[in-house]
Amino acid sequence: MSQASPDVVHARTLTRTLRHLEDEGLVEHRQDADTADYRLMTAGIELVELLTEIERWTREHRTNEGDGDGR
Question: What pTM, to 2 d.p., does this model score?
Answer without folding.
Answer: 0.68
